[in-house]
Amino acid sequence: MQYEIKQKDKFKYIEEGAGEPLVLLHGLFGALSNFKDLVEHFRQTHRVIVPMLPLFDLDIFHTTVGGLEKHVQKFIETLDLKDIHLLGNSLGGHVALVHILKHPERIKSLILTGSSGLFENGMGDTYPKRGDYEYIRKKTELTFYDPNMASKELVDEVFEITNNRLKVIKIIALAKSAIRNNLGEELNQIKQPTLLIWGNNDIITPPFVGREFNKLIPNSELHIIDHCGHAPMMEVPGEFNEVLAKFLTKLSQPAAVS
């Protein structure tokens, strides 16, 4: 399904449905298509918003996790969003973490899946190899438990990015920024209910990373999904949506009076 890309000031985003905002932040090679099953499911109950993160549009000094967080903060202010359920995958999870630590006031809950911020395996020392389509295909397949998830369309998208010298420089800058920006000491400050959904076969942010987040974030719950890699919302959308729906339903119910 094609969604209309809206624009307000400098911000581009998609917005579907009505209700409490569910804001989705994509990762380093992420695209709006990563969230299509999630958008379709939750537009029935929530106002689902996917901002297009300016991964390649910031100047090189601001091409950092912090630079992306500033963009998200201004976006939230521009749309005047409140009671936000903030969901991030991979680098998007890292941006969500930095945001909730700096600006917790508009955030109702946090959802992380395959998030960086504690530990992540990079794409390897030789990455990115420009012009080698087969190499890029194999690297893209590593995102998933099932290599067939790396469709030609997805590999083509990654190949196009890695074939552009300036984009490659910015990817490396963002990846290095994510590795430097370790949040282990600060995670105990997060007060909002937090849902962690991890692929048991994630080799980029392995399951022990999800367990460590669970240990460090006070009000968090962890769901590990078998036969699933780094992008559960793409690889096992049915199971992912079910876990997320339960979590959001629980939050919408009034607390029992003892």
Commentary on this structure:
Keywords: Hydrolase. Residues 21-119, 181-235 form the AB hydrolase-1 domain. InterPro entries: AB_hydrolase_1, AB_hydrolase_fold, AB_hydrolase_sf. This protein is an alpha/beta fold. The chain has a single domain (6-250), classed as Rossmann fold (3-Layer(aba) Sandwich), CATH 3.40.50.1820. Helices cover 39% and strands 17% of the residues. It contains nine helices and eight strands. The chain has an eight-stranded mixed β-sheet, sandwiched between helices. Helix 3 (91-102) links the parallel strand 5 and strand 6. The longest helix is centred in the C-terminal third of the chain and has 16 residues, at 165-180. The protein is globular, with a radius of gyration of 17 Å.
**Integer count of domains:** 1
CATH topology: Rossmann fold
Q: Separation of termini?
A: 46 Å
pLDDT averaged residue by residue: 93
Instruction: Write the element-wise H/E pattern from the N-terminal end onward.
Output: EEEHEHEHEHHHEHEHH
**How much β-strand is present in the residues?**
15-25%
Contiguous helical run count: 9
- Indicate the overall shape: globular
Summarize the amount of helix as a percent range. Answer: 25-40%
What structural category do the secondary elements indicate? alpha/beta
Number of strands: 8
Rounded Rg:
17 Å
Major beta sheet, strand line-up: 1-2-4-3-5-6-7-8
Just name the CATH architecture. Answer: 3-Layer(aba) Sandwich
Protein name: Alpha/beta fold hydrolase
Keywords: Hydrolase
GO molecular function: hydrolase activity
Domain AB hydrolase-1: 21-119, 181-235
